[in-house]
């Protein structure tokens, strides 16, 4: 069983424990993103207004917990703290001759742990700190036991103030310069990261959060988005590089296209294999497709290079040249393809530690080679002749 399958099996059993919540995530061979969290992926809300962030953060968490694509949704926003807001009754205080400065100094003496003196002994000096007893500072009732000095004698603090108890954040996290709340989550079994990205964006719009509450993926999820946006450009850059090298090699602008025409079948084969075995298209799978670009175009190069040499050096007609090239190059093409395919097969079917990293690579190589090997031997001669006729018509 995979690590994700074991987590899915343990999750409902661990949810039965009262008073504690356990979050599990599978260990990654290659950790991307660098942000530590209770679960594997993170989504961060930012707002310059902290009060607004404290309101909409929990609403988004509740919305995400209802999504079937996500599991173990949690947040680093800690709003279970309590605070006391003390308002001064200035009329009552002025009648007793008590100023706001005196009230502020009294509260500072009680809760501020102010150093008032230093006692020197023969061995060490000791700092004297003024405060109320620690056991009295844990409840709002402590204010009833604090008195403020006045001309007529001590006055209870509760007689000249109004106290309001409210919730507050225990800590305020920041990302950059603004307060932030990070929501972390795991993927549900059978769901890809792309499904979670679409579901989260849809949920954020559905709750009607104001435009000042900005949401973005962070950590591993941000790295996924970055890699997803750059993958088409990476593949395109690889194809352009191959085209330029082949064009210089054959002194032609047409035949490199013939060689590159073998790549779609390899890509389709790799994607079909991933779908068949229910494996997501990860970065490792992308590496497998890049490997296929080199392996598959090698088959076409072996035929086309031989056919071009026959045409240019011996004057053989294109039909006879490509036919002879396909016949004579069939054995080395089959040998090298089978060597690569059988080399990738243990990666695709192997288990054990780290198999989650190796399996997508093996599946893409095996699936791409199987389909491309079948099609390349039939399609490459046809495309070669079509490109040759196109070149002659253009001339």
Please characterize this protein's 3D structure.
Helix content is 54%, strand content 16%. Helix 8 (263-276) packs antiparallel against helix 12 (355-394), helix 9 (283-314) packs across helix 10 (318-328) and helix 9 (283-314) packs antiparallel against helix 11. The longest helix has 40 residues, at 355-394. It is elongated. The strands form four sheets. Strands 1, 2, 9, 10 and 11 form a five-stranded antiparallel β-sheet that branches. A two-stranded antiparallel sheet has the order 3-8. Strands 4-5 form a two-stranded antiparallel ribbon. With 395 residues, it is of the alpha+beta class. The chain folds into three domains: 3-79 and 171-218, Alpha-Beta Plaits (2-Layer Sandwich); 81-168, Multidrug efflux transporter AcrB TolC docking domain, DN and DC subdomains (2-Layer Sandwich); 228-394, Multidrug efflux transporter AcrB transmembrane fold (Up-down Bundle). It contains twelve helices and eleven strands.
